[in-house]
Structures
1.
Amino acid sequence: MANIISDETIEYVGILAKLELSDEEKEKAKSDMGRMLDYIDKLGELDTTDVEPMSHVFPVENVFREDIVTNGDEKERLLSNAPQEKDGMFVVPRTFE
Amino acid sequence: MSKQYETVIGLEVHVELATKTKIFCGCSTAFGAEPNTQTCPVCTGMPGSLPVLNKQVLEYAIAVGLATNCDITRYAKFDRKNYFYPDNPQNYQISQLYLPICRNGGVEIETEQGGKKVVGIHEIHMEEDAGKLIHDEWEDCSLVDYNRSGVPLIEIVSEPDMRSAAEVIAYLEKLRLVIQYLGASDCKLQEGSMRADVNLSVREVGAKEFGTRTEMKNLNSFKAITRAIEGETERQIDLIEAGKSVVQETRRWDDAKGESYAMRSKEDAQDYRYFPDPDLTPIRVSEKMLQEIRARQPEFRTEKMARYREAFAIPDYDIEIITGEKPLADLFEAAVALGAQPKKASNWIMGETLRLMKERDVDASDLRFSPENLTKLIALTDTRQINSSVAKEVFEVMFEENVDPEQYVEEKGLKIAGDEGALKKTVEEVIAANPQSVEDYRNGKEKAIGFLVGQTMKAMKGKADPGAVNRMLKELL
Amino acid sequence: MNGKDEEKNYMNIVEMTATQLAAAIRTGETTAVEATEAVLARIEEEDKKYNCYVTVDRDGALAQAKKVQAQIETGDLTGPLAGVPVAVKDNICTEGLLTTCSSRILHNFVPTYTAEAVKNLHKAGAVILGKTNMDEFAMGSTTETSAYGPTKNPRNTAHVPGGSSGGSAAAVAAGECIYAIGSDTGGSIRQPASYCGVVGMKPTYGTVSRYGLIAYGSSLDQIGPLTKDVTDCAAVLAALASHDPKDSTSVSREDTDFSTALTEDVKGLRIGIPNDYLGEGLNDEVRTAVLQAADVLKEKGAVVERFDLSLVEYAIPAYYTIAAAEASSNLERFDGIKYGYRTEAYAGLHNMYKKSRSEGFGEEVKRRIMLGSFVLSSGYYDAYYLKALKVKALIKKAFDEAFAKYDLILGPVAPTTAPKLGESLSDPIQMYLGDIYTIAVNLAGLPGISVPCGQDDRGLPIGLQLIGDCFQEKKLLRVAYTYEQHGKKF
């Protein structure tokens, strides 16, 4: 395997992705990610100098809406799925700021 | 301190745009609504919802870019900035990194030494605001309100061109005026519709390289900005003098304590994994679109000042003050257009308006009275229907409640009594009640008439023309 | 009717196509309510075996059926799908009806709005039966990554139905709905259609609104029909397609009268078969069936040629980079704050995020989120994500060149027929390789259709894939229809 994923990398990606893996899962993730990256490295075989990266397939551009209020009060609906609510707001663990 | 240091400052200024709706959905941006009542699936990150760009946001951003001498990016895109925080419902913010809408601009400011200098603008990009977190002390938790989530912002990123707090304030004032003149925002620091993050580093005078910078957040007033810049400069110099190094980090300013602290957490990787948002299409700014926006650009302050000097016989100082706040200039021009004499309109603004604004801590953009009513009030004094002390009294009421002065004066019976009969009767009563003064006057004591005029005015509750009272007294004596 | 007749009638209904059933409702032979009851009875009987559904909305379906029937009787609803019961993949939002993406993290999520595609079905007089099982967040090719157990292939319950729209494909094949809708990010409609022996189409990107489709890879996702035949496919696509101002990537099309394309006419049509689609890894029985299908079209007058498409082996790595990157961002919103699963015990905000997400997402989803977060992270963006977007541009160009020569491209949908349950998940890369013929279509935004063209010696269906240039759905439907009329019946 050309791509060796370190413990630090898995730890770091876990922070970015907000995923907590068990030791066993970490080992598996290291090997899976290494293999996937080896496979993705195949793209390096292609010369892409001067190729524009393509995020949209079609040249659809300038899709806008007008500045007109179309939405009303949806508070009840918004909160209907909330795991925890208080005073019309979502409850989260205390943020440190 | 043996060495001489120089402070290098760049600003990231967030400005909330004055659109009716949010940047990517049709929810209202009105301030002060009950929590979460101005929300929809899009601005609360409901699964499956998709953003669509508010055209007005793009137009305001381009207008600000043009007014600050930026190049407008003809092919712009939105990117996602990924980070987890509860005020950010998708856990990514839609912003612009790779192709921001404006680049390479700059504005001219006056330095403390009275010279001029250009502060470069690196870029201006469009993005969405986050929701609001409210801390619940009772239950030791936080509550999330998404009303502000998705309110449109532009972020104006300056070059590190400023060297002092005074230059920073001058730059912010300049931006505020330009944006206010465009009508793109009211730019209130206290209310958060304009927010400035300060990037600051210090270096020895003459050094070519920049020092390590920190970013300071939570600066809610010009005073706080000044104090934070002074505090941070001192902190960094102390570190360097002590042989320690400055750590590149984000710090939060606590204005009450007058100090800052690092906002760091090991869960905060500061790796935003920006990539083009696949849900939004690219923006192609056509020549036509640019021309239309250019054609709509308003007269800015410098042009306005020149025109005022040309058109109105009012002092330079008045012109400077009035054009220094767009709402004041608007008020002035509207009143003049309605027929008020420029000098009188200017006097009302420079005098009573500014006095009451200061006394009652009212922002120019929050003035309640209309130019129509100001014009009416001026007309009432011009035609001597009320005297100047009554006018001030009426103005105070107008300032609070925007009453129609004609109607108000009528209702409260404040008009100078034009009725000769009533005046004559009062004067006769005053003469009868003050024989001593009458005798003094007849004996050649001119001053005594002043007392009688005063007594008459008092009896008339002020609504008489003192000149007319004087004439009538002399006649009857 | 006595019990036996009723049963017989029900049998007929569940075997009808959508257009047949709508016609029968229109002429009064049956009603929307009777049809819905028949399909619900079938689900009741069969779904324990197949597990096609996550949620069956019995009461809601019957209520809709009554309403729709009344509208048909007053003449307010006249379309070719009016009164016909449909199954909806569980990643498409339905107001008031549980929508889980087959994930634990959305185990209790009830959308507050309905996806535009489903609204369009409502307008066409559809009766929504319920929500079909899928690979969790559409990540998988077997419907085994569902948090609610795998769906089984109705043609052989030891095998998978394919995925990720496995529940939808299996429900159509098992008569547990008359037609279904699914979503296709890398083959997720076409491949299960192929494995289950039904017709499935991925339309040109932008044809069907994505508003309300819970995103996996936003630049690749597209909703489409799974039906019993090509005629239904055209009718359902016509109902689904619309320009939606709520979806910035939605395309405004005039040519959505897809049923007009149902003609037997392939004379002179140039069909290219990529040599790269017949190479190593392709099962012999699949190859034979696909080439026989090509011969049928040749007999009807099409010009069939082999050619080199090139870059085929780069589609999978490019796809997994782009899809994983987009998914890692799209799935950030599942954080235990606004909806869905929140872990019970936690210490502070970040611990709550991590525990909720780690307990809420399954293994394959976590694998792709990790990969996607990595390829976007500082220092790797250019090497992986940007590189993949450039390769995507090259792949699109290769298709453009192919479509300069050919009206459409013909090939297999998948290298094999449906694998056995439990065979695929052990080796993710091997599973990803199974998407080799379908994935490039999503990268290039093209339309593709899967039509049954045979079965292997175990009786497992084989699918024929037709790929068109952008907006050429009508050409695809015409060729698919011609083949369906003249090919063997399976």
2.
Amino acid sequence: MNRSASGKWWLYAILSVAVVIVSAPFVWMVVGSLKTTSELRRSPPTWLPENATLDNYSQLFSRLDFGTYFFNSTVVAVVVTVGNLLFCSMLGYALAMLDFPGKKALFGVVMATLLIPGVVTFVPLFVLVANAGLVDTLPGLMLPFLAAPFGVFLMRQFILGLPRDLLDAGRVDGAGELRIFARIFLPLCGPALATLGILTFLGSWNNFLWPLVVAQTEQTYTLPVALALYSKGQNATNYGLLLAGATVVVVPVLLVFLAFQRRVIEGIATTGIK
Amino acid sequence: MLALPFCLLFLVFTVWPVLQSLFMSITDTRAKDLRTPFSVDFVGLDNYTRALSDENFLRAVRNTAYFVLVGVPLTLTLALAAAVALDRGISRFRSAFRLGFYTPVVTSIVAVAVVWQFLLNREFGLINTVLGWVGISGPNWLGDPDWAMPALIMMASWRNFGTGMIIFLAGLQAVPWALHEAASIDGASAWQRFRHITLPMLRPTMLFVSVTTMIGYLQFFEEPFVMTNGGPLDSTVSMSLYTYRQFGFGNYGYAASLSYLIFVVVAIVTALQFRALREKE
């Protein structure tokens, strides 16, 4: 099989063209962000920037407030990620290793909500957050996402694969339940925690509908909200600025993803096929 | 005790809103009722009957159906083609190709929508420039009611086929190579082997990928929000975008009922797909 497979040069050619097509929008985005808007409006387009300039970026961070949006996106994503790692591993562990009344029902309810679209809950969630006075605050952006069912599923599946003897051994040695979880099981969950952490971080960074509803002034905008609103406002035809903005949104996650791509791809594959 | 923190958050921010949403959908709650929650009236199923006769909502339903019925098969085909090519066709650079195809999935839809809006520009967009090389005069993608939706579908398929590809690749591991070899000795062509061995064995994976892709596409929102604002001539208003607009107008009760209708569609479609793919076994 390998002999015949490596001889298929035409398949390599097709796949290479496909990769070029798939990555072209990103290349075009980065190259475009270095051009002036008047150059971007030219037809036919120029390939490389005539006078490469970082002017678009300096505008983003001086005239517009992308520094703040970047900060907001980062804080929200980090807190949401830490919250999920903590809460989902705790419940995942309890569901996998411990016996308590209502365990099956709890797992069923949590799994059932996996299917519920975010659009179903945002209206009452907004009312809830508004009544708590958290509209237009960072906690308002984070709170609803601190404990997501997906993480419970992922952690439970992983912990089910760990030996139960560890639990008994810990109990025999007289360790408390919390200690058994934190000192024995949690350190063994490294791979699952890494996968969950990255997927949660990416999800939070790219999240849009909820921040769009809750962030109402520029102080609490996250990057996607700011970018979406600028792309419709008075900067709508300032293509250089928008492409630079998109680059600022995309490049950090691309770097995180490239650094941890194995974990992400394995995570998708294992949770995908059960 | 370990379950407590999650359960509290889960109760407040997931279970309660789901129930509250159902409750709101049978009331006439509006934005101004936030401060006076007892002034809302029950209206029974009025919101739902209103939705089913709301020409604008029905338009959004048809647009969403278009997006799903064309977008899901296209995305699945691309995903499966990439997975099969990477699984059996080549032996080197497999992970590099896999990475290249998967990358769009992790990026923000808002950001790629902004970039695509530029790519799709009629005069100086990259897509029409490339089409021009082969003598095709590209349409005014996002400005033409007939072409705006195909453009959104193209972008969504580009962004999302990587997920399906990864899951198909995992599923293909379960297809025994010995079967392929036996069939090819019996004179079966590559296409016949794909059709009669690979496809049937991939059925569970296919089910999973089509259900998750469809659930995602039924809720598409960012693409029209950023790229077309639902236009031109409402040709790209999706159910989620319409729901968001009603919420923006302060019609909370009505928006809640619309969101429940989306939920019902998601649930029905999922159940139907499970049945359709199970029955063939």
3.
Amino acid sequence: MTEQQSPAAVGGDVRLTGIGKTYGSFTAVHPLDLTVPQGSFFALLGASGCGKTTTLRMIAGLEEPTSGTVLIGGQDVTALPPYKRPVNTVFQSYALFPHLDIFENVAFGLRRRGRKDVKKQVEDMLELVELGQYARRKPHQLSGGQQQRVAVARALINHPQVLLLDEPLGALDLKLRRQMQLELKRIQTEVGITFVHVTHDQEEAMTMADTIAVMNGGRVEQLGAPAELYENPATTFVANFLGQSNLLPADVTGGAGEDLLLSAAGARLTVPRARCATEARRVHLGVRPEKITIEHGSAEVAEGRNRLAGTVVDSSFIGVSTQYLVRTEGGQEVTVFEQNMERDARVVPGAPVVLHWNPAHSFALDAAQAIDAGTGEAAA
Amino acid sequence: MSTLTEAAPPQAIPPDSGQPAGSAPRTRRKLTPYWLLLPGVAWLVVFFAVPMLYQGSTSLQTGSLEDGFRVTWHLATYWDALVEYKWHFVRSFGYAATATLLCLAIGYPLAYTIAFKASKRWRSVLLILVIAPFFTSFLIRTLAWKTILSDGGPVVGLLNTLHVLDVTSAIGLTSGDRVLATPLAVVCGLTYNFLPFMILPLYTSLERIDPRLHEAAGDLYARPFTTFRKVTFPISLPGVVAGTLLTFIPASGDYINAQLLGSPSEQMVGNGIQKQFLNVLDYPTAAALSFILMALILGMVTVYMRKAGTEELV
């Protein structure tokens, strides 16, 4: 058993090559390549059953890949059992040992490796997660948030090269979840260990991660920084799963310099060629609801903006903004989020309106994909 | 702008509305638990408390069947019974303890396999197989062991060929070429008959263990055996305690196994009690023996629970 004494000094890259998992005839994960750079906070995002947890478990060694290899810090660990891998996991329901107190739970990994100075290290770690005074309690005597911090402490104390987090915040209520997101991010920055975080919560992924891999049906749909994924989704799934998108079926009618000309929803629209992810003639034209300006039908629209006319079908006031549902003249429904700053009192259900936005905020995706991919779980 | 302080005032609830006129329903609700306890308590009183008192008074009587028994507070009966049957007590607890340990050694791996390794469908099949012997009478099953262990039977033959009997004879478990009518036979019978009482509580406590705890232990550098030692076994301790008690207590009072599979020199306390009650008709001695057995078991169980309790039963 070879152990790195100071894992931080060694490269903690996680490199998956061609890794896949099938159960009988069901493919949980299609062979995929993924590199998680040392020290990054990496999120695997997707709906339940998309293969994200299976991928994580293959890194941890809890699941044997059907194909491919797992490299951690340049070392091939594919054939190693979990207890020989330089990784530690924070489990979904924490999996704290119910018969051991908090101190012994945190000390478990150190004791198994026969480390000296267990007491000091555990006390320091409990201080880091602010649970010093709970050392002699049993897990069931702690609240969900405290148990979660014990689970993190129990994993981190071993200084793994990679910390794997399997939906660690799923069992917490919303407020605590937000708090723990910041807490985990703080800890990650402090210890500088590579974090691989599995979640179905797109907001959680965007708040915490440097890089997100959006998974769907056992494949990685898109990989990138949160802002990049949000602003420039490559597939309809990503467009719908990450935030909300208006997707309009459109035909490419020509080009003008840097822009493509499209006809959609009974109007002529443009999209920058650089934001067109396909060569196809039939596309889905996408635009995020908050990029659209909504004005009364009589308003003047500046030259060079994409423009759609329609009627307000529904409006709902949600405090910080108002959400409108507008039916365009072409019959499509478009969602618009408008900040509650200077509201036009005439924009009410039934009123004729004009929608316009900067063409640079549009994106075009291949129309061969299902237009509603990823919407089902997006609301969660 | 006007503030809507008047909007829909909630229906004011009078503070004492929790108690509607009269307190009859409340009293009735308070009594419900006692009504529910009644059948069990009545059963215990009629079939446990009263017989115990009766048996207690019997143990303090002297006399004979012809002249009748009278309570004379003759406590010496206890001492005499203990002296006369001391080796019966030693054998009872010795055989019961050995059988309990054997049950644990056989039952734990079995329960573990059923709980963690068997598929859902096999799990129920295996559990049914565990309790399947109960479909046949206890007596018949014990008699069957007589055939299994009979002299010149295949088991004895095999043990002889493997020279196992030489070893067991050397430590006094068997004598010569026989298994029947030896301590080994009695222990085998006890082990066999009480095994399900060990397996079922073990299975229940193992089955409740979240398999993710095993994964967590593996993730925290514990090899499979260490995981068992540090996680699985400690968490299953309540099952071990329950199983050992459910095996040890009835086994110490058992007399069928000793009677059918043993010889007079393997007799246990149960045989003594049976003989005093049914053959000698010395009721005071029989009752005193029963009380001594009960007291000793109670004492041992208390000590055991204290010891096991320090591990903290989850």
4.
Amino acid sequence: MSPSVNNIGSSLDFFVIVAIALFVIGSYGVLTRKNMIVLLMCIELMLNSVNLLLVTFSKYYGTSDAQIFVFFIIVVAAAEATVGLSILIMAYRSNKSIDIELFNKLKD
Amino acid sequence: MDALIVIFITGLIGLFVGMMKKPVLSLSISVLGLISAFILMLYYKSYESPFGNYNGLNFTPSGNIFALLVIGLTLLIVLSGFNYFKKDIEHTADYYGLILFSLCGALILIGFTNFFMFFLGLEIMSIPVYVLVGIRKQNTLSSEASIKYFFTGSFATGILLFGIALVYGASGTFDLNEISNSVSIWKEAPAMFHVGVLFILAAFLFKVGAVPFHFWSPDVYQGSTDAVMSYMATVVKIAALYSFVTLFGSVLGASGNIYTGILEIVIIASFFLGYVSALKQSNFKRLLAYSGISNTGFALLSVFTGDFGSLWIFLLGYTASTIALMTVSQAIEKIDSEDIKNWKGIGYKNPFIGVVVLISFLSLAGIPPLTGFFGKFLLLSGNYQNHLTLVILALISSVIGAFLYLRFVINVFAKESHAEKICIGPLHITVLIISTFVSIFGWTIILF
């Protein structure tokens, strides 16, 4: 039977709390910031908090599959950042600004 | 699996062939690849992994028919979008390449057995679509839609990953079978597991575009081209819904009914918000987007039963209608089909278009002998014992939907003397005939 979360020792608590804090900071940034580059950074922060969480659990369970998952996440985050930055440049050319509030032409 | 490889290689070849700037060649290569993938999917069902007993991908019989549906729909979309793509001669191959790569992701999302493959499939499916939405680089609306889709999509990815990490923390594995095993062993699932499941649920509602997280879909649909919009409204939605039902219908659903109440509220809100908002739209794509939100609500009913058969029939009817309508919209592009006012009298002057629009909308509304009716009927009859309120509300919202669709059809058949006679290209006629045929006779597949 797999160990349940209640058994996680106090040493792991620290990492879990840090990861959750990073995630909350990242998602708060996505919801409130206006500058699109900062938005990209916040999304990256969310993904990295997930990486930290996965590595923590992987260490706890003594399995390596979560650590491999982390590499996948890093690769996908890189791909996403590439696409996101190029979309951002395209948007900048058409709007001469990277303020997300200015992109409000599509609405009911 | 062979189908997946064939589609991927076709996409790669298509990108290189694209350097020759021959749109017809790109089209024929993609069509050839898709047809051979369809045939492979039909005949080589099982797949032996070369990596021992690691099976990240496994197409179950129900996954197989969904994969066939997705490949067939992409074929229709590729055909119907050609008239638009060939104008943009620099980027014709990019369209085909990106659609095929995205289709790879959709297939992975249909065959996944663990969270590795699930996450990869979701991203492989989404990232090309971010690009496809913004492919009209000079168009302000297109880049705005792309920005919106990208940020909401990657935010949803972050939430999804956090949910997966929490589920992993609670169960110690990414494999769906092992997770459902440990769920059945627990007397009471740990709080971390429930929080993880709720995070995954939220991310999914983002991806399928159900109410609280639907706000992006009308904007994004409006900003993208017709072919890309029909791709998002059909293939992306099918793959996301299938994986939704796989995850929540069996694996995560076994953990208890904490999420059932949330899903019920989501479904009811989707029914009404979608149709009621659609009533006041003047843009054709926004209308279809809002009616798509309601149809997503219907499709989510299958989560409670975990029944893929009824979901398949329903999605068959919905997608056939959507493809037919978007193809009509592309065929009458020169009179600015985005504005609903311009559709007035089209069916009166062009009986063929009129009949296609009529049948598609009747099928969407769920009028008896058409495929859309059988889909809704099967979904509702599966649910009426346990969720009677949901079924009644679904029927009430269907009446609003029928009003919306019939109002549009009456508008299309209005006697308008200065409506134009429009000649349709052979590719569009093929797609229209196939999708109308599916709308009328698609339900006969139940008999087999």
